Amino acid sequence: MYRVIHQLKERNFNRAITKSEKAVLDYLEAHFKQIPKWTVIKIARESYTSQATINRTAKLLGFKGFSELKYAIKEDVDLLTSETQKHIRNTEYMLSRINFSQVDAFVKHVYQHRKKLLIFGLGASNVSAQYMARQLLYFGIPAIVVSELQMLNQFKSYTLLILSSSGETQRCLQMLENAKRANMFVLSITKKDSTISAESSLSFVHDVAVDKMDGISREQQLHMILMINDVINRLKLNYFHHDATSG
User: Which ranges carry the HTH rpiR-type domain (predicted)?
Assistant: First the structure.
């Protein structure tokens, strides 16, 4: 748990702060990662304050003095660095498990059928479906997010895009089966070698592990959002670039 950084950003103290204390707080926030390496003399000089003001500010933040504050900042920096690196490694792993070579044909079909596009996703994938529909609206693509099997009856000439992280969700499989029975073209953003991938007309796939026994892993959507963002970015680059720059 962070001990200092949130206080520097929020600054919800039980008394008003002085101008010199604000200068110290501003300096600590602006040079947060370097503070553990620096002396109180250097900080006082560069923030145009005094050592007494710095110690008073440390007490304002809940510490006995600058030495204790400096140690707490070091703990925050170590935690911040480890958390950031963890998220970077996680994102890099997911990117490495996405088959971006498939996306151009996928994007081309989305563009060609942009006036007749349905999107379907369940649970966390429904949130991703709503996100994708919102992003498509910025291009004037009125994609419709559907939630019930019966809705397909009114849109048989449309393309159906299924979002499913696992590619094996039963209701998604039922939706795919109904769409194929209605001779609809089915796109999917889903897992490699899954049933939905195999049965779709065109699929954009990932190979991120999904642990069926782990609710957090099952519901994680970062890789799906990365894939959706790539579709949106390629639409903009390949088909809407001139529209975006001409206005």
Answer: 4-80
